[in-house]
Amino acid sequence: MNYWISVLFRIIPLAMGAICLGYGWYIWDMGSDANTYVAGHVVLFLSIICVALFTTAATIIRQLIHTYSAAFKVALPLIGYVAAAIGIIGGLIFVRSGTGAEHFVAGHVVFGLGLITCCVSTVALSSTKFILIPSNSKAGPGHHPDQAFSGGMVALLFAIPIICALIGIVWGIDIVRSDETPNVVAGHVLAGIGLVCASLVALVASVVRQIQNTYSEADRRFWPWLVIVMGTIDILWGLYLLIFQYGPVTIAPGFVLIGLGIVCYSILSKVLLLALVWRHPYPLAKRIPLIPVLTALTCLFIAAFLFEAATINPAYMVPARVMVGLGGICFTLFSIVSILESGTSS
After folding, report:
1. Alpha-carbon span 143 to 271, nearest angstrom
2. Rounded distance, CA 207 to CA 339, Å?
3. What parts of the sequence cross the membrane (predicted)?
4. What are phi and psi of 312, to 5 degrees?
5. 31 Cβ contact partners less than 8 Å away, ≥ 6 residues apart
6. For the segment 155-213, what is each residue's pLDDT rounded down to a tens digit?
7. Residue 50 in contact with residue 329, Cβ under 8 Å?
8. CB distance 196 to 176 below 8 Å
9. If residue 167 lies in a helix (H) or strand (E), which one and from where to where?
10. End-to-end Cα spacing for the chain
11. Does the N terminus or the C terminus of the chain have fewer Cβ atoms within 10 A?
12. CA 37, CA 17: separation in Å to the nearest integer?
């Protein structure tokens, strides 16, 4: 990988994180009503996902350009987990420190973003031995590399995103059983975030099993389809709310669920790339990074329509701003899948 290209791919997640941080702060400072509070907090805390994506990018790139040291092996995943802890703890504080509906909604969503960040940080942790993937692909099945993860470490890497997914889905469904407005909004979104975490289980599994050289034809089929199913559920769930339960309460969670489904399809690009190039020549591998570019544009185009709708109906204000932030997350994933393509192209 060219050094300056590697710098660009590390700048992209930091730039998107800075945009989410600055834009979220601007929205939060723009007014004192519930909509600006929720939108500002959610967009601002989307930056922690960008931080975790940066640690993933830096972990893989430094191995490819041979500048990966023991200090980076510890520091990069640790930075991601610290960002995750900020989101999880911050979300719980928002829920408990305020009595308004905006505190309840923002707190649960921010907590969910912390769960996603924890899963992405686990991708970074599982990628600390990424350099084994190209050699394992050439070595053929049956060869267990000496530098691979221990059995206990493999179990831990699988457990973290699975637990995060279960927490998001179960807690979200439990909240949404109440008919109160904040519960409906927070519950739907938190459960949808749990499905994004489930998609990241597939990414962690694909990376780990290729590092362990235990990636099989069944893995090649199962993990991409898991992400497709999770993303489709999020999108169909959002459409159901918007079509069959349309109202001021369901507008925000409906569109945010669609945005979360689009993020899942961005994650699909990474899982799909790992599956397609594993011990198979795939001439179109260089085109797969276009998937997160298209998903980012989709989020931004949807946001443009929502901004126009918000001039008439304030219920569209929050999803319009959040969709912009989700577009930034999708574009950040473009840098990650491009790095993967470079690292596995041989």
Report:
1. 22
2. 13
3. 7-26, 38-62, 74-95, 107-132, 153-173, 185-210, 222-243, 255-278, 290-312, 318-340
4. -105, -40
5. none
6. 999 999 999 999 999 999 999 988 788 999 999 999 999 999 999 999 999 999 999 99
7. yes
8. no
9. helix 151-176
10. 12
11. C
12. 19
